Automatic annotation (TrEMBL):
<dbReference type="InterPro" id="IPR015495">
    <property type="entry name" value="Myb_TF_plants"/>
</dbReference>
<feature type="region of interest" description="Disordered">
    <location>
        <begin position="241"/>
        <end position="266"/>
    </location>
</feature>
<feature type="region of interest" description="Disordered">
    <location>
        <begin position="178"/>
        <end position="205"/>
    </location>
</feature>
<feature type="compositionally biased region" description="Polar residues">
    <location>
        <begin position="241"/>
        <end position="250"/>
    </location>
</feature>
<keyword id="KW-0804">Transcription</keyword>
<dbReference type="GO" id="GO:0005634">
    <property type="term" value="C:nucleus"/>
</dbReference>
<protein>
    <submittedName>
        <fullName>Uncharacterized protein</fullName>
    </submittedName>
</protein>
<feature type="domain" description="Myb-like">
    <location>
        <begin position="9"/>
        <end position="61"/>
    </location>
</feature>
<dbReference type="GO" id="GO:1901957">
    <property type="term" value="P:regulation of cutin biosynthetic process"/>
</dbReference>
<keyword id="KW-0805">Transcription regulation</keyword>
<keyword id="KW-0238">DNA-binding</keyword>
<feature type="domain" description="HTH myb-type">
    <location>
        <begin position="62"/>
        <end position="116"/>
    </location>
</feature>
<keyword id="KW-0677">Repeat</keyword>
<keyword id="KW-0539">Nucleus</keyword>
<dbReference type="InterPro" id="IPR009057">
    <property type="entry name" value="Homeodomain-like_sf"/>
</dbReference>
<feature type="domain" description="Myb-like">
    <location>
        <begin position="62"/>
        <end position="112"/>
    </location>
</feature>
<feature type="compositionally biased region" description="Polar residues">
    <location>
        <begin position="193"/>
        <end position="205"/>
    </location>
</feature>
Length: 417
DNA sequence: AATCATAGCAACCGCATTAGG
DNA sequence: ACCTAATGCGGTTGCTATGAT
């Protein structure tokens, strides 16, 4: 497949945008929308290629972009999501609303990466340098992937175990609760499940006003139609998308429950033997740090790995709660579990992964202190495994929990259901 | 004051994927 | 099923500002 020519065309301007050009582009999009980017430049009277216009808009002119200094909370979110996702900037950006992937990427490359390196942390593997050196040079990336894979796999195994346990409970509750329908769901069976999970969520979190709204979450993923429950729970009413065009007129609920029935005809859920999946998450009150409230200086000056660990791998005892098993169900229907980090780039995998992330981010049930609070003044409570770091499993769990906690408490309005 | 080095960031490049005919 | 345009995304480049010598 040949690549379409773009900026090589003669007569098209390249380089920095002038205020006049910005004004033209802005005015045009405000009036007409961007429509076809290729056609836009001529219509807007710009001597630019469509791609350049699109980039300028998405990275700079879009009105919902937050610019300026990154807060500590944002920095920590980026670091942890990077540990989780690697250099998948767009995925990271979806959890930092109002920040563009380009900005995050730049910030990582110019600030965070150096900072971690300075602290003796390998920015690729997110492990202490000594560990990373074991797989030096070209192998460090592979090591990072393996690390990510191991973490994913660990979470998945835990989820699977839970799935087995809960699926049995479900079949019981299904039979018992057909018919109750306080949720706007297309199926009464799913409704009863929702209620189960709603109660479960409510029992493990602070009581939150419960609304609900059902969508086909997989379809929503396919369409890029993210719903962000965090924003609602954070008191932000409108749902903004990190991309320019998505918006939702309705508020997402503090607990977003999603069901989809399995047609059994293939697709993502094709091999799923469960009759339906549901995503139940909750987000509760969060603590938001003001920008610049805390600095990294403690970490930097001490160059102390233990402190880093305490900050990033916050000690928490909560486990993956509701949601993971539902995700696993969809995962198993969606071909295979990703065998490598890169393999996630296929659409199904991306869907699964995003769902997993969102579940991770959305399933916190009560331990939602921010890292700013916990990691910032390090060691309020002794860390994972009570100081004995030999237990890989505990470390690993705490690592993921810390990510979960971080983003749940993040002010960044991460997209959720 | 001039020169060089470095940091920061906007913008570009090119591959991958998706959508539509 | 195939082709092509459009779009998404991550890596890289190059310009500008700032600091050091």
């Amino acid at each position: 497949m040949g690549r379409s020519p773009c900026c090589d065309k003669v007569g098209l301007k390249k380089g920095p945008w002038t205020p006049e050009e910005d004004q033209k582009l802005l005015a045009y999009i405000e009036e007409h929308g961007h429509g076809s980017w290729r056609a836009l430049p001529s219509k807007a009277g710009l001597q630019r290629c469509g791609k350049s216009c699109r980039l300028r808009w998405t990275n700079y002119l879009r009105p919902d972009i937050k610019r300026g200094k990154f807060s500590l909370q944002e920095e920590q979110t980026i670091i942890q999501l990077h540990a989780l996702l690697g250099n998948r900037w767009s995925a990271i950006a979806t959890h930092l609303s109002k920040r563009t992937d380009n900005e995050i990427k730049n910030y990582w490359n110019t600030h965070l990466k150096k900072r971690l390196t300075k602290m003796g942390i390998d920015p690729i593997t997110h492990k202490p340098k000594n560990d990373a050196l074991l797989s030096s040079d070209g192998q460090s990336k592979t090591a990072a992937n393996l690390s990510h894979m191991a973490q994913w796999e660990s979470a998945r195994l835990e989820a699977e175990a839970r799935l087995v346990r809960e699926s049995k409970l479900r079949s019981h509750s299904l039979q018992n609760q057909l018919g109750s329908s306080t949720f706007a769901s297309s199926s009464s069976a799913s409704t009863s499940l929702l209620n189960n999970n709603k109660q479960e969520a409510a029992s493990t979190t602070e009581m939150v006003p419960i609304q609900s709204r059902s969508i086909d979450v997989l379809k929503a993923w396919n369409n890029g139609g993210w719903l962000k429950s965090n924003e609602v729970s954070n008191g932000v009413g409108d749902l903004e998308s990190p991309t320019s065009t998505l918006s939702f007129s309705e508020n997402a609920p503090p607990i977003m429950t999603t069901t989809t029935t399995n047609s059994g005809s293939g697709g993502i859920l094709g091999e799923n033997t469960m009759p339906m999946i549901e995503f139940v998450g909750s987000s509760s009150g969060c603590s938001v740090k003001e920008e610049g409230e805390q600095e990294w200086k403690g970490y930097e000056s001490s160059n102390n790995l233990a402190e880093y660990k305490d900050g990033i791998m916050e000690n928490s005892v909560n486990t993956f709660t509701c949601g993971l098993h539902e995700l696993t169900m969809s995962m198993e229907g969606a071909a295979t579990w990703p065998g490598s980090h890169e393999s996630l780039r296929t659409n199904d995998h991306a869907i699964v992964e995003e769902g997993f992330i969102n579940l991770l981010l959305n399933t916190n049930s009560g331990n939602h202190r921010s890292l700013s609070e916990c990691g910032g003044d390090s060691n309020n409570d002794e860390g994972s495994g009570n100081g004995s770091d030999g237990d890989f499993y505990e470390d690993n769990k705490n690592y993921w929990n810390s990510i979960l906690n971080l983003v749940n408490s993040s002010p960044s309005d991460s997209p959720m259901f």
